[in-house]
Amino acid sequence: FGRESALLIQEIQDYLEFFVGKNVLDLGCSSGGIALEIASLAREVRGLDSSGLAVEWANAASYAQGYTNAQFVRAKIGEARSDLLVQHR
To answer: What is the largest CA-CA distance in the chain?
Structure first.
């Protein structure tokens, strides 16, 4: 979770009501900071990132915070696997 994520989280604060009850897809989710900020409001959050380590951190943070509606998956945007994950929603 870096400075850029912290700044983006700060930027979305005024728009959080738009995520209430929605299914949210975070492409390039990194360690999941933004997705987890939204997870308490959204119906479901799915994050995709090409870094296996970042996805591990995101899933661990999600579990530690008790979110059952957030899932993070290692996938590259444009790969058939990522297309299936998005369509599965």
So the answer is: 35
Angstrom distance (rounded) from CA 46 to CA 68: 11
The DSSP call for residue 79 is S
Could you give the C-alpha distances from 80 to 22, 73, 75, in angstroms and in order? 24, 14, 9
Distance CA 76, CA 50 (A): 5
Q: How far apart are CA 70 and CA 76, in angstroms?
A: 18
pLDDT digits (tens, 9 = 90+) for 21-70: 999 999 999 999 999 999 999 999 999 999 999 999 999 999 999 999 99
User: DSSP alpha helices (H): ranges in the chain?
Assistant: 3-12, 33-39, 52-64, 80-87
Give the H or E element holding residue 48.
strand 44-49
Amino acid sitting at position 34: I
- CB-CB contact of 72 with 62 (8 Å): yes
